[in-house]
Please model this.
Amino acid sequence: MILYTGICLSAYSQNQINFSKSPVDSIEKEVQGNNKLIYIFFTNPGCVPCTRMKKLVFTDSSVTRFYNENFINTIVNNTGKDPEAKRLCAKYEIIRYPTHLFINSKGEIVNRTSGYQDAETFKKLGVNTIRNITRDYYYNRIIAGDCSFETVRQALYLEEPVLLFADSNYRCRAQEILDHYFSRQKQEELPSKENWYLIRNYVYNPHSEIFQYLVSHQDEFVKHYGRQAVDIAIYNILAKYVTGDSSSERFKAADKEVRTMNIPQSLVWVRFKTIMDESYKIRRDSIGNWNDLVRNANEFILENYYMINQFEINTWCWTMYIDYTKGADISNETLKNTCQWMKRISEFHKDFEHEDTYAHILFALGEQAQAIEIEELALNHAIQEKADKETIESFRKELEIFKLKK
Model:
């Protein structure tokens, strides 16, 4: 067993992170004698990044070895029905999934962050937690005058993302760091690569001065990074702003605010939300039909596919493909339009699930050779990204079906 800076790096191999099934209160008592920290993975059933972490990160050998040796790990799955999960989410103010929380035996927060983490950054998060390189360390450096990009980037990486409320006076430490940093930048420095990185990854608040500057000086940023990249950055900030419980007053206020902004990206957000609402009615309440939705949305989707939620579109297209194969009222025109949607999305965002959907629609339209080509691409990407065995095997089987079909 090798030890350095108090971190245990056992050499034995493990296939996955061992998550305790004991209640968090019981785990806190368990670690009182050994001073271990508790890692809590907050998730919910609809969290796509959570699922990807479980498949790709929690099975990485270096990650599993490190977390199993150095933490007691547990999962809190907020289904909305488990009282204990609700209590913990309320106690630790969980508003984004996944959230990664490290606590001590007293239930006190030692470190926290949220969002998808790849294997390297997730392991680094654990290392930094144990070494006590936490939020306070970087925050204090910044307040003391170190406003270098690297210090600010590390601080924001360890901070909980800016908490989003429809209140221009709302403050949190991540927003304070951003304001502190950008207020010290010269105007001509704002479009720099370093600042663009911070804007794309850490600016969440439409009330912030840097967001207002980005919106009013879009052409300046477009010269450096292109129209699509700027559109995506602004759209994502708006989409993150209107998040959470749709029945809450905060959500309703944010929703109303974005609808009245009258900038190109907010207009796209409003239109896409309307289309999403229509899709929910079709799937959930059998109100309306896919043919009308696709016909009315086709031009909009083809123009704005790079901005809007591509995973949502993939879900619609897969649903329509399944309905089509079952003989439902999905016209050839509808299927051809969805095929164009998936073509653009698959070429823009190379994701094996998107490619798989695209291949199936091609096959349904009789484009056998192209369907085989795209499904092979999906299979290769799934293998490269270490997708679960079931997914890889299903892609292989589908590929054989495509090849055998006369």
